[in-house]
Amino acid sequence: MGVVQWAISPWGQTVPIHIAWFLIYLMASAGLVFLVVHAIYVRYFASAEEFSGSISQSAAASVPARVPRHSFAARAFHWIMAAAMLTLLFTAFLPKVGFPFAWVTYHWIAGLVLTASILFHIVHATFFMDFWAIWPNKEDMEEGMNRLKRTLGQDAPAPRRFAKYPFENKMYHGVIVLTGLSVMLTGIFMIFRVRTGIFPRNPYLFGDMTWGLMYVLHGLAGVSLIALIIVHIYFAMRPEKFVLTKSMVFGSLPKEYYLEHHDPERWVVEGSSKGASV
Amino acid sequence: MAVIRDVMPAFDLLQPSTAADAQRLLEQHGSDAWVLAGGLDSFDWLKDRIKKPKVVVDLSGVDELRGVRATSDGGVEIGAMTTLTEVVTNPIIKERFSLLSQGAELAASPQIRNQGTIGGNVSQDARCHYYRAGWPCYRAGGNLCYADTPTGRNREHAILHADRCVAVNPSDSAPALIALDAQFVIKTSKGDRIVDAEDYFIGPDLDITHLNILRPGDLLTAIRIPATWAGAKFYFERVRDRNVWDFALLNVASAMTVSGGNIDKVRVAVNGAAARPLRLKAVEDAVRGKPANAATGEMAGKLAVEGAVPLQFNAYKIPMMRNLVKRAIGGVEVATWA
């Protein structure tokens, strides 16, 4: 049982045509298993979060009561992308699991919305935000390793408080970038296979092998997103993370949460004097 | 690929004698099973070695699926294994629902009608030559429609409701059954399911690999025609390249009642224009209450083809469909010697 469905083209070539559809169930199951295992781990086995150092009184005093975390543009992007992504997942996979409906038009329109929102995000993040804030750096890697060791009961120093984004957020963002760009780029070309009224239809844009690989990549990234989105929604709903979810709606975090989890030296808040952690 | 004709792949042949047994076998073997009715669709697939079922469930021994029975409400129930010839010659159908006998009589050739069944006729697969040749098109589970490419041959293909795949439904009896407001009886593991004729057929927007709602384990057992349209004014016309054997390029079926020269009730359906036979509800609504004449027919014809999108080689279908619907509503002017 392969992960890719193959066919013989009219010219006798063996070409991939799409992913095997059992991957839908596999990835949905993987997302749900992660959710259950993580919930059990947090409930029964996880120890309280510990950070090294403490924040000086003067630094804490300069932090505003609400710490701005996401600009309006960033929040708008996130929710538009979320709506487009969920529409894409539902329209792509519901018909495959027994809920048939006319999905193609909704799918490509949602795909164009996702593409536009991603392009906006790339420009916005590159020129109007701290571009590197979301990418893992060497310090993140080292601290991530230390946290893993501590989770496994080994000796390792307690990590510092986070910068604006915790290491897990950065890793998740990286994976979403890879999968998101994969579905977006392949999806744009696949739009040329259907009648949209926007692009001239051209099924001969690529050869059968290239098209097949494109469908497979689109499918693999798509089913990966099932698990990734399940995990994302799970964390967004977790009680200890819900404050972050609210910040994606209202734009800011409470000062207490900020001081508990974030290092004012690593994430300098607008309107505060640069604090010093001790 | 179609490489060897006449040598079918090996399969287990199961020959139940009751519909219940047939359904159970279909349920048991799921997507590995193939339903064999008259064989006119099946043997093409099997001999070309394009479909390779593990199990073939032959319905020829299921007598309860044969025959035409009058129902208490004045309608008829036609067993799915009733041959087209029996449908054509049945006196009740001829007298009360001649629309269906006209449609069935125009199907294929006498030999084929002697062998082909009504259930097979409505359930047969698309006749797109790319699909039938075994190419990995959308309908075969692939990711391309070879007929809808810049060089594709698509003279027989869809002008309406194409969604990636442009194949059409080839049935001649289907539009007549839709016009007669028939219901299809499907035996499933959960009991009998009854669906309106127009809901039996599906387009590629809903399911690109099937032309109807039958799924593994389902068995079409009968078609019921209510008395609603008995003795109404019927019209059936079919256009094909040759007057026997060929599949229809387009066909139209209408049933109407006329009072005081005006159309009272009407149902119109066409096939060969899309992947499913189309009931023309907009046309029905537009002509209801209007005189059954050429002007109304003209208007109906124009309305019927609104939204039609031709491919490279089938633009002729648009005026053809316009004229068929026009004639179905307004009637055909009979040529006379001046």
What does this structure look like?
The complex is a heterodimer of chains A (278) and B (338). Helices cover 57% and strands 6% of the residues of chain A. Chain A has 278 residues and is mainly α. In chain A, the strands form two sheets. A two-stranded antiparallel ribbon of chain A has the order 1-2. Chain A has a two-stranded antiparallel sheet with strand order 3-4. In chain A, strand 1 and strand 2 form a beta hairpin. By secondary structure, chain B is an alpha+beta fold. Chain B has a domain of 51 residues: 2-Layer Sandwich (Uridine Diphospho-n-acetylenolpyruvylglucosamine Reductase, domain 2), CATH 3.30.43. Chain B contains 13 helices and twelve strands. Chain B has a five-stranded antiparallel sheet. In chain B, strand 4 and strand 5 form a beta hairpin. The interface between A and B is medium-sized, with 26 and 21 residues.
Helix content of chain A: 55-70%
Task: Provide the helix percentage of chain B.
Answer: 25-40%
Major sheet characteristics of chain A: 2 strands, antiparallel
Would you identify the CATH H-level superfamily of the domain at 70-261 in chain A? Transmembrane di-heme cytochromes, Chain C
Mean pLDDT of chain B: 95
Going by CATH, the architecture of the domain at 70-261 in chain A would be Up-down Bundle
Number of strands of chain B: 12
Radius of gyration of chain A: 22 Å
Per the CATH scheme, the topology name of the domain at 70-261 in chain A is Fumarate Reductase Cytochrome B subunit
Task: Indicate the multimeric state.
Answer: heterodimer
Order of helices and strands of chain A: EEHHEHHHHHHEH
